Amino acid sequence: MVVLGTYNTRFRLLNDRTVDLLLLGDTHTIEREVRERTTGAGFTFSSPYYYDGMAYFGNENLVECAEKQQRYDDCSPLLICAGQESTSHDFVQSSFPSDFLMVSSSLDEMTEMLWNDTCNVIATDRSYLLNLASSDENSDRKFIVGNMLLTKEPLAIVTRNNDREFSDIINWVVQALFYGEEQGLTKNSSLCQNYTNLTSHHVSDLNFMNAVYCVGNYGEIIFDGEQNNRGMNQINNGTTGMLYATPFGDLKNENGYFFSSNTRDALLDNIRNAQGSLNCGVVVPDDFHVGMSVEYCRTLAAALFNGNSERVNFLTFSGNDNSSFVALNNGTIDVIAGGRVEKKYDFVSSLSIGGFVFSTPYYYGNETAGGDVSSFSLATREDDVLFSSFVNCIVLATIYAQEKGINIEASKEMPLMTIFGSQFNFALRDAIAYSGSYDQIYTKHFGDVLEENRGRNILNNKGGPQIHSFPGLSP
Question: What pTM, to 2 d.p., does this model score?
Answer without folding.
Answer: 0.90
